[in-house]
Amino acid sequence: MSDETYSADPMHGGGDAGGHLDAGTVAAYLDDRLPAAKTVFVEAHLARCDVCRAEVVQLDAIVRPARVWPRPYFVGLGLAAAAALVLIVLPSRNAPSGVAADSASQTFRIRALGALTQPPIYLGVPVRAPSTQERERFANGMRAYTEARYTDAAALLKEVQAGGIDGAATRFFLGASLLMLDDAPGAADAFARVIDAGKTGYLAEAHYYRAKALLRMNQPDSAAVELDRSAGAGEETMKNTSRALQDSLRRARGR
Amino acid sequence: MPAELAALSASTAAERESAWSRFVTSYTPLLLRVARTVMHDHDAAMDAYTFVLGQLREDDLRRLLAYRATADCSFSTWLAVVARRLCLDHYRQKYGRVRTDAPEARDAQRERRRLADLVAVEVEPQLAATNPDPAAALEQAEIINAVQAALSGLAPRDQLLLRYRFDDDLPAREIARLMRFRSVFHVYRRVNALLASCRTALAQKGIRSTSG
User: In chain B, what percentage of residues exceed pLDDT 90?
Assistant: First the structure.
């Protein structure tokens, strides 16, 4: 089963020569570089061919960057929150009154709600771009993101934007990278730009993660508005997640 | 074309030798990952890796230089596909048979696990129970035929989704990654929609689903 036996006619005649997809077609499919009509052809073949399907499943795991799945993320609460914690722990020595300590405690609780237990997940959806170079630049940015190299990811995604690819995906993952770097104002701004783009696949999540950024900036009123919007715009899971955070926010504010 | 590949066409033998060394250094991590995927034993994987390098270098790098003709994909992805196929070749040459868990060996198993059967059980859970009653068996066959007909009318992408989900037993997360769904929830939603369409197809044939 060499590449030759697979590919009597690589990339020609539909790429389904001799019963199996040729190497070039499989690679182009894995890279999302097939035209739509050929993708339909390939998926029809995969639906009935165990051998090619196994190849795609195995190689997809190798050639596409490994995903970074849930990892605790409680850093990035910021020095102010740490200072607030000191005020809570040492109220008798440092706080002028119990009111100040309560306020600091509330601030800490609100900021803590801005923490993430995992970064927004990228599932490998490529960006539409007119050239291979631009697609690769986006892919590099997302590779850095999935490898948790958020500084690199943010820099690369800014380059992608500067190159004119400024769609919702680029804005969203730039915001996500900045959020992971604890640049809450930068993240809030990036997510606002996703929201400005209107109804995209990222709208509900942009509201939600903007709320997270705003919580870190201790702006609970604005965060509550964003959570209302994410609950209104999202699917059931996002609705429930947003409502749960709203409830936590209400509790943190003592309302 | 990557610089490492372009350099392999250098004019002098010394330059080509040096370019080959750089190529091996650059792509060894990828080739080893591929070899380890096909050959789970460490020594066998190293053998396969050596075999792949030998095959790539054979006939003045004929295989590698063929990449130029298939430049609709990145070189590293194409190389991974070619290397995996070479590893399977190596396995066959060495052991003379496919492993029992290789996809080709699943044909017999496959006969028992037709996609229609699996989807039919999802749509109509009572099918999972063996019923010795001939009338019930006939009804079950009718249901499976109806599901088979419904499946054949689906778009290829939807058929592939159901294959991954019910035949290959892949988790939704992996399917989402493979098929570029935005989240696992999109996978679940699409699968549920497809099952609902199968139920509708059954209902239209007068077969009432008990699962709702």
Answer: 20
